[in-house]
Each structure stands twice: as structure tokens, then as C-alpha cells.
Amino acid sequence: MTFKHIITQLESLPPLSNTPFIIQQIYSVGAQNIDILKLVKVIENDAVLAANILRMINAPIYGFSTKIASISQAVTLFGTDEIYGLVLKYAVDEQLKADTDIYGVNNKEFNDICQLQSTLMLQWYSKIDIRHAQFLAPLALIMESGKLVLANEVMKSNYIKKFTLGYKNTKYVSEFEHSLLGTTTYYLSGLLFEYWKLEPLYVEILKGLDFEDNYSPKIASFIDSLDVVRTAVNPKNALTKDSIKEAAELVEDIGLEPEHFVKVASRVREQYNKILINRMRKK
Predict the structure, then answer these.
(1) Among 235, 221, 185, which Cα is nearest to 206's?
(2) CB atoms within 10 A of CB 237
(3) Which of 156, 159, 176, 226 is the most buried (most CB within 10 A)?
(4) Which of 71, 3, 85, 7 is nearest to 39 (CA)?
């Protein structure tokens, strides 16, 4: 299993299914300028996609007190950016079915982590820049896609035991991935989105998360913000006391208010704890 082999596997993936591709074209004019009625109609015409979006939106982690029953209602409540993220997540999950146990979490827990990352990004960054928060929240929802790529490759290789043990014992996951493959799963996510011709800025941000380059101040701020969120929420540490503290230090390093971040992260963690308790009661 090498970086070159994984790239070959990426390039052999089929294109996104027809509906997500059409929706991607709708968003090519910018999320603020899209025809909302057309977007709703396209999603509604794909019964499976519509059902999955409503299922994701009605997940307890989003905290709606009443059930969202229609796509038009979902778009109104969530906004076009977050709907775009949900469409992409559905499309990616359909193409990259993988067992995430090698990361120490099952698939449901992995999905929770993706949703927590998006929720934290939106709730934290909205106070700083609402438009940028709306742009980054969908990316936070799907930025772990590269881990699904790697999981598939590990499970087909002789690296399962070596990877699982190394991942469990490392504190710095990106460094561990790089030592094993010469790249990281966030960079793989960038390559994946580039292959599927998704939002170019998403590709640039993901490629820059673990590899420095001469980025514009805007891209650099996006990268810094995403780095904060993945530090606070990831498969190894989902909003633990230590991960929130470490993320808050990054927040301070980039000149933002760590107290506000800690407050938001703690609130999201409290909400998630209630969800976990309810799940345990239902078992």
C-alpha cells in the first residue's frame, strides 16, 4: 500500500451520481445566487437523496424540536450551503462505503464526528464571520472523506494490524499517516474532491491543512479555522477536555477569542452527551 497505489484507486472511482452532479452545477454560480426552487425540485425528484437528506437533518445532533418534513423546509432552515454539504456527504458515502473500525470508532460514531465538526464550525465561526461560517460548515462535514479512502485500502492490505496499533498509539495522526503513506487523509480528501471536480476552494484548503504553501490571507484563515475544528473533534478525541483546550490554544494563536470557542465547544459537547445518553436508554 503506497501513495501511488491509493491515487490509482482514487482515479478508478466512478463519477458522482447524476443528481449530485446536477446539484453541483446549480451551485456553480455560488450558493448565494442559486435558484432555490430549482434546487428543491432536483432534490425532490431523487427520492433516495431526499429521504437521506431529511434523515440526516432530523438526526438528534442538529437539535430540532420538531421534525423537518420537506426539502423546502430544510433549505429554509439550513440554508443553501449546508444543504450542499449534506448532498455531497450523501454522494461521498454512497461511493466510499468503508469500515471505520480501524480508527477506533464504528460507522455511526464516525458519522457523528463529521456532524459535530460541521456543527462546531457553524456555531463557533458564525460570530466571527457568518458568510465564512456558512462556507466552511459543509466542508467540515465532509473533510474526513479521505479516511474512508484509506480505510478501504487498509482493509484490503496486510497493514491492518500495523495501522490499527500505530494509529491507537500516536498523538499526531497526520504525522503517523505521512510516515506510513507519504501523505495524509486530508490531502487525500482534497485529491478526491479535485477528481470529482467539487468546489476548488475546498480542494485548496484540504491540501493545505497539513502542507504549508504561500496561501492568500483568506485561504490561510480558512485553513486555520478548519485546523481548530479538527483538533477539537476527530475520531480519537471528540470534544474531550484536552482536545477543546488544545483547540482553544490554536484559536488564541490566530488572534481570535478562545473563551468564546470553549463556550461553544462545551455547549456542543453537552448536547452530544445527551444524545449518547438517550441512545443508551433505547438499547
Answers:
(1) 185
(2) 18
(3) 226
(4) 71
Name the residue with cell 450523501: 90
CB 231 within 8 A of CB 246: yes
Q: Give 142-200 pLDDT, tens digit per residue.
A: 999 999 988 888 888 887 888 899 999 998 999 998 888 888 999 999 999 998 888 88
pTM, 2 dp: 0.89
Domains of the chain: 3-282 (1.10.3210.10)
Cβ neighbours of residue 268 under 8 Å, at least 6 residues apart? 116, 119, 120, 123, 239
Q: Write the pLDDT tens digit of every residue in 190-239.
A: 999 998 888 889 999 999 999 888 889 999 999 999 999 999 999 999 99
138 pLDDT more than 60: yes
Residue 168: φ, ψ to 5°: -65, -35
